[in-house]
Amino acid sequence: MTTIALSGSHSFVASPTSRTTRPTTTAAQLSTLAQPAKVTVVAAAASVPPITVLHLSATGAVEPTTWTISDYVVTLPYGTPLFAMTTGALAIGAIVLARALAPFAGTRVVRGMLAAWAVAMVLLVTFPTNLRGTPEDLSSNIHLYAGAVAFAMLPFAGWLLARWQRRTIGGSVLTTVLGVTSAVSGVLSTALILNRFPAVIGMPELMLPPGILQRVAGGMEIVLLAVAGLVILRSASQATQD
Length: 242
Fold this sequence. Notes:
By secondary structure, the chain is mainly alpha-helical. 69% of the residues lie in helices and 5% in strands. The chain has two domains: 1-26, no CATH class; 32-237.
């Protein structure tokens, strides 16, 4: 018989002839995730004030229903540094979590998606969109595709992380919340990408108000990153207590 430790108080027993076993995850390994998970949660929380200030500073013709966050960034004073604070905090949170998961089997795809999401966050602020009413350029096109990557990657990463959590450590209420949040974020992100597609191929109108849809989808991604950090933090805390 082979015993595989899952946490301080859980184990999985499999016979030597068993074809499938859960990856070994010890309490000592899980405890190392506590600090990175805290950084991820704090980073998600820290991303909110700058983007909030950006919206509160909006005046004049700025219209949240049809104007995207990117339009705000290139139009309003201090838009770029405020946006950089938000995207920078989110990128840090994702990279720290990805690096912390490196020693754990079955996390390679999750880590790759978190890293891709972080890179997309950096590209969004490095390559701003064009001012409304001006021709698109290389920077605005890079910005557009980086945005698509950003909205596509994190919901998948959250879903895979919830699946990994259930398979190797065990499910919990927070794990279920992570799965549900990932699904909702995925639906919103898909709607946002499909909503943007007509303009990409030259059609004049979008199906839904892009500004509102983008803000809801973006807000859900911040929540998703925070929930992912909380799920890992809970597992690490339980391992430390055990």
